[in-house]
């Protein structure tokens, strides 16, 4: 019978050791779960702050997009006017080219002879004046 008591005593010690070991493991798991809970709370708070900042960023981006759209709409008239100016310039250029070609083909144009003579006389006068000034400088 003594052997039975000793076996029961050993089983009781083994059970006590296993119970202590399981208790330590459960305490560590409890600490780990507490730490994990705090980490999840911190992540949740950071995520909330990030979402708020992201919402503000999206609102500012929307304001900027609306502002750009309004400014682009305001420039539509300018670009239409520039298009009209370009069309008018093209028409004037075509007409000028046609008249230039007409004048180039027509050798004697009435009324141009006095203008040509006036240009020749003014060139002569300019040359004469320049030469007189040069002579005056040399003699001084």
Overall body shape: rod-shaped
How far apart are the first and last residues' alpha carbons, in Å?
Answer: 154 Å
The chain-level mean pLDDT equals 84
How many domains, as an integer? 1
Order of helices and strands: HH
Number of helices: 2
Largest sheet: none
Structural class: mainly alpha
Secondary structure: helix percent = over 70%
Rg: 51 Å
Approximately what portion of the residues adopt beta-strand conformation? Answer: under 5%
Report low-confidence residues grouped into runs of 5 or more: none
Topology, number of strands: 0
Descriptive tags:
140 residues; mainly alpha; rod-shaped
Briefly, what is this?
This protein has 140 residues and is mostly helical. It has helices at 2-105, 113-139.
Describe this structure in words.
- This protein is mainly α and about 140 residues long.
- Helices cover about 95% and strands about 0% of the residues.
- It has two helices and no strands.
- The chain has helices at about 1-105, 115-140.
- The longest helix is centred in the middle third of the chain and has 104 residues, at about 1-105.
- The protein is rod-shaped.
């Amino acid at each position: 019978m003594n052997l039975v008591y000793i076996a029961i005593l050993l089983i009781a010690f083994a059970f006590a050791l296993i119970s202590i070991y399981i208790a330590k493991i459960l305490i560590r798991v409890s600490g780990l779960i507490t730490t994990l809970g705090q980490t999840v709370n911190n992540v949740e708070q950071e995520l909330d702050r990030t979402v708020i900042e992201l919402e503000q960023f999206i609102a500012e981006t929307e304001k900027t997009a609306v502002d750009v759209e309004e400014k682009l709409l305001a420039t539509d008239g300018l670009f239409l006017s520039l298009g009209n100016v370009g069309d008018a310039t093209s028409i004037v250029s075509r007409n000028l080219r046609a008249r230039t070609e007409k004048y180039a083909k027509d050798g004697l144009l009435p009324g141009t002879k006095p203008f040509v003579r006036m240009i020749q006389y003014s060139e002569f006068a300019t040359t004469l004046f320049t030469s007189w000034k040069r002579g005056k400088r040399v003699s001084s």
